[in-house]
Structures are given as structure tokens and as C-alpha cells.
Design a protein that fits this description.
It is a single chain. The protein has 2 domains: about 5-415, Creatine Kinase, Chain A, domain 2; about 425-495, no CATH class. It has helices spanning about 25-35, 100-125, 160-170, 175, 185-190, 245-265, 280-285, 305-325, 330-350, 360-375, 385-390, 415-420, 430-440, 475-480, 485-495; strands at about 5-10, 15, 45, 75, 80-85, 90-95, 130-135, 145-155, 180, 195, 205-210, 215-220, 235-240, 295, 305, 445, 450-455, 460-465. The protein is globular. By secondary structure, the protein is α+β, with helices and mostly antiparallel strands. Strand 4 and strand 5 form a beta hairpin. Strands 4-5-6-1-8-13 form a 6-stranded antiparallel sheet. Strands 3-16-17-18 form a 4-stranded mixed sheet, covered by helices on one side. The two termini are about 35 Å apart.
């Protein structure tokens, strides 16, 4: 039986400017500005971090796990999220969420956190040192940074089945959730001299399966770091997605993937379409084809376009929900919205892209870029078009083109503001966020599966949270209300 698809998004933001144009220092300024404004001194606890564990067993000789940079700015927010510097980028990792709708909300909250941090940071800098932030995935110079999704999956599912089932989805979903890109940056993509791509990230993927996230990027990442009870759960770490400005694209990116994972847990791989025989070539070729006509040979010797794969996946997911329901993913009304919007966006990109320009990022961007090119008779390689691409992702509302193209909203501004400060109520993020808000002076560190208290005397005390569905408001709200101090809380937990 499918388990609850607890999920979330980690977003590395593009950054420019700052003192001496040094991105690590500028990223630290952003993170520290927000942390100090929020009066939080709570550090990230790196105990239990295992980025080198490979779901396939021992990693190959050419596999290199990401380096954990424990010395960079890193803090925990009252909404249960993590805000930190990852390599040379400020990153917001959302709290664990119970549904795709909720995870989309907390991704939007991350945008607002970054906007507030940017304002605070630039107030302390000279005008010539001002920092800019972008919710995008590449710097135009051949460097890519990630927007990673995370999904709770049963440990009972064999990892080889995850590969077989999810490769068709991950290589093809860019036709509705790609963020769009002017031109190309890598040698193989530049060889084709494309004017426009569907995905910001597709050209940077080099392997089908692997442990790395920054070199030899794989379509299926094998990091076996569940941040929970490893005997019951695994965390599917998805690194192939784009950073979306359209809330509907984020919602469908999360919702479609969660539904397919639930279907895999319940029914195995039988209903999934055959994957392309050469997945890396397919993900790149599909991205280079805004017409959606490119087809790839699949393992069953049939040729399929990205649209064909998505159509088969939607049909399988729709049938699965009709037969079994989608409770593992979300309540019935939300599952219905996922399926209906997935279908509308899929049909729209094929039949009438204007009908989905308010939901599909690449379509919205493509219309702006081609409109500017035609209006001013610009060469396809004109730098102005790349500038428009970047401006689409600018976080400052007055400069952001994404704010001006009529993207459909999913949640209200008030809901986003609430999510900036308050955690989800139906995962362990509630307990983490409430502890950070209520007992900031007695918490020295926290991470996804524990909170570490310092009561002033005696050893540090760690409260483990190995089940993402415990620590909810239903289970801990009353307890927290009657515990004015951390001493009271730990004493009550001991009892």
C-alpha cells in the first residue's frame, strides 16, 4: 500500500553583485541578514548527514558525493525550513509538507523569505555593492544550480523499479513544467545552435543514474539519505527539475510525480511506459524542441515524443486514482485538481500554447522573447533576449517579468505570508518550527530528524523525529501550549 507522499523543494537561488562580486560572501550576507532580522541563532545539526550513501549499494569508483560545507551560514526558520549557503548560492529548503498544494505554498514562502532577506541585506550595502537574486538554474556561463524535489517512498520498493518507472517521467515532464531558456551553454547543446529550450537544466545532465549532483548529473539521483527511519523509508532526491515561477507548474511537477510514485508502490512498474533507450539523449533532445515533434526510440522498439510519454503517464495515473484513490498524495479534491490541470497543460502545449501561457513557464517566457525579437527585429543571438530570459526570474517584483506575464496564482498573498513564519501542521515540521519559535534561547541546533536543546546545565539533549508524520499539530500542539519553557517540554516528553 502506498505511503503518504511527504514532500518538499530545495531551491538554490542565482546571485550576482555584492562586495567584490564574491558569490559565497554575498550568499552569506543574504542568509545572515534574514537570520539576524529574525533573531535566530539556531544552527544546522550535521549529525546523521550521509550524502555518500548510494541506494545501489557501494558507489562506483567514479562516484563522488557532495561535500558538506559545515562552515557556511546555515540556520533553521520558524516555519520549519532551512536557510543556508550551498556552495556559492543561498538556498531555501522548504519544510516537509503533506500535499503538493502545501509544498507549492512553502516554495512560494521561500521566494518571499529571499525577497525579504534581499531588502535587508541591500539596506546595509553601498549602492554599487547591491545584490540581485534570481529563481533560475544557470548563470549563462556554463554553470548550473539546482531545484531539488524530495518525496517519501517506501523502503519496500526496489530502487531498480524506481529507475524503470520514473525515467520516462523525468525526461518528458519538461514539456509542461520546464522554465524555458534562451540559447544554450554546454558544448553538445551549442552544437545545435538552439534559439530556445524548454528546460533550463536538461542540457546539463550526463548520466541516467548516479550519486553526484554537481558533476556528471544523473536523471535519477541515488543518494540514500532518508532523514528518517531508514528501515521503513527512503527519500527520492529528484535533481532534474527547473525552478518554476508559475505556481501551477510547481504544483503539477510535484503532484504528477507524487501520484506516479504512489502508483509504483501499489502496482509496480507494469503500467509505466517503456523508457527511451538513451535517456540522456532524450532529455536533451526533448528540451531542444519547442514544437514537441521530436521522437526517441524506447526499450520496446516504439518511437515516442515527450508528449506521448506524458500522455501515457497521465492515463495510467488517472486510471490508478479511479481504481484506488489518491489518498497517499492528497485529499480527493486536490488529486482531482492535479489530474485536471496536468491534462489541460498537456493538451495545451500541443494544441494551443496560448491557452496555457498563464501556467506553463516556458510558454510564458517564449511568448515574451519571440514578441521582443519580432518587434525589434533582433538577431536570435542578441544579448537583449538573454537579458529578458534572466529578467523573467528576477526576485524583485518591480523588475520581474514573471510578475507581468499574467501567471495564474494558486494561493493568496496572505497564505504565503502566513507560511513564511508558521510551519505546516501535519508533518514533523510543525514540532521543529514551533520549538524554534518558542524556545530559541534553549535550542543550539536542529535538522530534519531531530532538535537539540541546551538547558544550561548537563549534556545537550536531542529529541529525535524519525517519522515525518509525527510531531504534527494534532499530536504536539496541546503539549507545547502547556510547556512555557524547554525544560518543561523535555520533562513532559520524558514522562
Amino acid at each position: 500500500m502506498a505511503i503518504a507522499k511527504v514532500l518538499g523543494i530545495e531551491t538554490e537561488y542565482g546571485i550576482s553583485g555584492g562586495p567584490d562580486l564574491e558569490p559565497i560572501a554575498s550568499s552569506s550576507i543574504i542568509v545572515n541578514a534574514y537570520a539576524h532580522q529574525g533573531r535566530t541563532r539556531i544552527n544546522w545539526d550535521f549529525q546523521g548527514e550521509t550524502p555518500d550513501l548510494d541506494a545501489r549499494g557501494l558507489p562506483g569508483l567514479t562516484s563522488f558525493a557532495p561535500i558538506i560545507e559545515t562552515h557556511l551560514a546555515n540556520t533553521v526558520l520558524t516555519n520549519g525550513a532551512r536557510l543556508y549557503v550551498d556552495h556559492a548560492h543561498p538556498e531555501y529548503s522548504s519544510p516537509e509538507c503533506r500535499t503538493p498544494w502545501e509544498a507549492t505554498l512553502y516554495d512560494l514562502a521561500g521566494e518571499e523569505v529571499m525577497r525579504r532577506a534581499l531588502v535587508i541585506a541591500n539596506e546595509s550595502l553601498a549602492p554599487e555593492d547591491a545584490i540581485s537574486l534570481y529563481k533560475n538554474n544557470s548563470d549563462g556561463k556554463g554553470n548550473s544550480y539546482g531545484t531539488h524535489e524530495n518525496f517519501l517512498v517506501s523502503r519496500d520498493v526496489d530502487f531498480s523499479d524506481i529507475i524503470r518507472a520514473m525515467v520516462p517521467h523525468f525526461v518528458s515532464r519538461q514539456i509542461i513544467v520546464g522554465a524555458g531558456k534562451v540559447g544554450a551553454e554546454t558544448d553538445h547543446a551549442l552544437h545545435g545552435d538552439p534559439f530556445f529550450q524548454l528546460s533550463q537544466r536538461a542540457e546539463f545532465f550526463e548520466e541516467v543514474v548516479g550519486l553526484e549532483t554537481t558533476l556528471k548529473r544523473p536523471i535519477i539521483n541515488t543518494r540514500d539519505e532518508p532523514h528518517s527511519d531508514a528501515e521503513r523509508f527512503r527519500r527520492l532526491h529528484v535533481i532534474i527539475g527547473d525552478a518554476n515561477l508559475s505556481p501551477y507548474a510547481t504544483f503539477i511537477k510535484l503532484g504528477s510525480t507524487a501520484l506516479l510514485l504512489a502508483m509504483l508502490e501499489d502496482e509496480g512498474t507494469e503500467r509505466f511506459p517503456s523508457p527511451p533507450r538513451h535517456p540522456v539523449h532524450a532529455v536533451r533532445a526533448y528540451s531542444l524542441d519547442p514544437s514537441l515533434h521530436v521522437v526517441e526510440i524506447c526499450d520496446d522498439n516504439k518511437w515516442r515524443s515527450a508528449w506521448d510519454l506524458q500522455d501515457q503517464l497521465w492515463t495510467a495515473a488517472n486510471d490508478y486514482v479511479a481504481r484506488r484513490g489518491g489518498e497517499a498524495v492528497a485529499p480527493e479534491a486536490e488529486v482531482s485538481l492535479i489530474l485536471s490541470q496536468w491534462r489541460e497543460m498537456l493538451d495545451g502545449v500541443r494544441d494551443d500554447i496560448r491557452s496555457v501561457a498563464d501556467r506553463v513557464d516556458w510558454v510564458a517566457k517564449y511568448r515574451v522573447v519571440t514578441g521582443m525579437q519580432e518587434r525589434y527585429d533582433l538577431d536570435p543571438h542578441d544579448a537583449k533576449l538573454r537579458a529578458i530570459d534572466l529578467q523573467y526570474h528576477d526576485l524583485v517584483p518591480q523588475r520581474s517579468l514573471a510578475r507581468r506575464v499574467g501567471l495564474r496564482t494558486l494561493q493568496s498573498d496572505e497564505e504565503v505570508r502566513e507560511a513564511v513564519h508558521n510551519p505546516p501542521t501535519d508533518t514533523r515540521a510543525y514540532f521543529r518550527g514551533q520549538c524554534v519559535a518558542r524556545y530559541p534561547e534553549q535550542i543550539v541546533a536542529a535538522n530534519w530528524d531531530s532538535v537539540v536543546f541546551d538547558l544550561g546545565e548537563g549534556p545537550l539533549q536531542r529529541v529525535p523525529m524519525m517519522d515525518p508524520l509525527r510531531g504534527t499539530a494534532a499530536l504536539t500542539e496541546d503539549l507545547l501550549k502547556v510547556c512555557p519553557t524547554a525544560d518543561d517540554l523535555l520533562e513532559a516528553l520524558d514522562r
